[in-house]
Records
---
Amino acid sequence: MGATTSLASRQLSVTPGGSVDATVQVRNNGTLVDQFSVDVVGDAKDWTEVEPRIMNLMPGQEGAVQIKFAPPRNSTVPAGFVPFGVRVLSREEPHGSVVEEGSVQVEPFTDLQVELSPKSSRCRSKARHEVVVDNSGNYPMPVELVANDPDEQLKMSLDYSTLTVQPGTSAFLKLTVKPHDRFLKGAERRHPFQVTALAADVPPTTVQGTVVQQQLLPKWLLPALIALVALAIAGVALWFTVVKPTVQSAARETAKTEVAAQQAAMQQQVDSAEQKAAAAEQKAAAAEQKAATGGGGPPAPPPVTGPGGVDISTGTTFDTRISAEVTANPNPNAFTKIDNAVPAVPAGKTLVITDLLLQNPHGDTGTIRILRGNDVLYEFGLANFRDYDYHSIAPLTFPPDQKLAIAVNCQTPGAPEPATGKCKVSATFSGKTSG
């Protein structure tokens, strides 16, 4: 059968910081000695005390439990009705446990504070302060703020004059203070002012502040001007007494040195011209003497030969261009060889390359190699050029059995080629075929 309970009062009222008691009667309706545990459930359990929490009752015996409600005086417990339940649990017959329900009215209380930061400020034309309104009470509080100065020397402006501050929160307002009159020079002027917070059923809360008005001209300005004038006078005197004569003397010395150098250079040019004229006269005289004696013409120049003794001064002009479109491959060792665009070298002839033009118009990245058969002659990084004109000091020779070719490794195609995923490069070769 478990227990039966009765709550003497189901509606209570308490002021935060105070307490109120309620009594719960518990009766053992079972046939055995039973132990009952009592606790409070609901939002009120954190500020409720139960005495005793455990009681032992004989069959048919009745006991009283005191419930004390003591909400703290802060914003954590809002004003209003708070429902609760007194739960009585039977150890012998758990299914026979019961809950008595009720509510406690938490009365509202007010705790309003106003702060000013900073309390004192200095300015020439405008000062700024911050007004902080703290609501440490337990219900939302409508507040009206009024800023004024007793001497009526200031123009004061708040962000907003009316607001509602929620319990346990703070509101921050900007206060701008401007003196009505400004002055260029003179002693500091102190202007007291105050900010008052007005709320219903609460005495006004006032905070005091001060604005110290300073002259518009900075105090350091006059000494700085005096020092600047003195420095200017000293600079003028130094110029006319020391710097200017030194500069004029240095200029004269420099001019003399330059004139002497120019005269020496002109004399060297004259001497060189005289030497060249004398040499020309000697050559002309030798030529006349040789003509008079019937001498032959100048000897033929020797032939120009490349590696292996190949005569490259004569032969058929050779030009070809190899273009490559290579799909991007992240492997730096993956090269695509192109040699089908180069005409075959005739039997008994040698291909001689003297000029090379590489073109990378889209700014691709990767590597291009110049090959002679399978041998790598040159290797260039594509990222290092858009157009590269290369002239070989020692001409490149290709016999008929070693073909000219290029090999390309494409890493990253340049714009607009990323859409196709291919690098587009070319190599143009110029030279001769000689026998």
---
Amino acid sequence: MAKKAKKTIRREWTKADIKELKAHSKARTPVIKISKVTKRSVGALRQKALYLGIGLGHQR
């Protein structure tokens, strides 16, 4: 029997979350560390950064 896939739980981005992401971008914090602190996936962080027009990781 196949394993069940982990259910994705989506969380809205609050203004505080966006402010924190911008601060990490300015401080050049590695994406993996931001991921652990915010409890969001690397992909989610990169997508939001792209949408906001800020750099993360190698996109500088």
